[in-house]
């Protein structure tokens, strides 16, 4: 009797949006190719859990979720928008600066979700498909090259072995840090975040709940989530270093609602109403990213970076999770080609397969990373050419630069 092939062992470190989507994409592509794989997901937290905030998926990411066969469930947890990505408005009187339309009439459409609902959907799908074994309280410290495998060392002194390790462990990725010495970079901007019940249409003067108010050095963003029952709020302010010394980059860091009121004094009445509905202690974050990194794969392709571990970006295009999802799709496809022995020279070895994953994904992810910085500077009127211009002079420049910016992402 011919011995049954041992499944290829894949360790996914980090069970966030990137890690769970990658798990599903690898399972999908390898099942279709008839390749046996064993996937273990190692999450540091005690539960697979997301913060109480929203995340907007563009049509690029939504399309991949539909390709995996649970797009209907994605649409069910998202809010159905009304043909608008965001309408940009003046801070003082809410007059329109520019409105970015999108086609929301198709099945595959933008999907603004509660992060927790999206993570629950991914986790539930992993479980229903028996795509992986999900571990908790497994905080990876480092990986070790065993030649033909990788050993993962956890904080609790246990270890695990796999044929490849996919580092989906976020912006602070210990695995990335093992190979590359750099640190998250503080953008100078902080964000207040919160979720409130959606205001009634009679108290909302715009045709869309997706609105961004612009002012010098600050902008205030809202968009609907949870089937249009809740409004997600992310309010950005650029501060001096002395004002941000005590702010953390953590979802447990909070402030008094009074701080938000003070920062947005002078904003239009609709914004004041939204602020008044925030919890008494909204969260307050330092917004950080990483410098673009030119190598995403190590140990001959046995260790690969994915999502924020590879390309943490500022949130100003609302594209980071979508880029992580794209990584997972491409990696799943590449691994299935390699493992099924497709004969294509690009997939002949694990090293060449990992290189192909990087070659396909890196330029697009880095463009999104760099464009996210530019978008933030534009909204806050801090690009070099706007620094000495008045608010009134900046407004048409922002409209011009914003009109087409999202097209390459979608
Ligand atoms: C204010 C803000 C708004 C945003 N809005 C959007 C948006 O609208 N649309 C969008 O597409 N993106 C948005 N993003 C970006 C998006 O949140 C990230 O790009 C996305 O979450 C990255 O997913 P990830 O799985 O790579 O990393 P993460 O979401 O950070 O997940 C990493 C996971 O790894 C785990 N982990 C960490 N270290 C270890 C370890 N050592 N061992 C084991 N597990 C570990 C963590 O607990 C976590 O579960 C926003 C970001 C911010 C800050």
From TrEMBL:
InterPro entries: FAD-bd, FAD-dep_Monooxygenase_BioMet, FAD/NAD-bd_sf. Belongs to the paxM FAD-dependent monooxygenase family. One of its GO terms (molecular function) is monooxygenase activity. This is FAD-binding domain-containing protein. It comes from Baudoinia panamericana (strain UAMH 10762) (Angels' share fungus). Residues 10-347 form the FAD-binding domain. Keywords: FAD, Flavoprotein, Monooxygenase, Oxidoreductase. Pfam families: FAD_binding_3. Signal peptide: none annotated. The lineage of its organism: Eukaryota, Fungi, Dikarya, Ascomycota, Pezizomycotina. It comes from the Eukaryota.
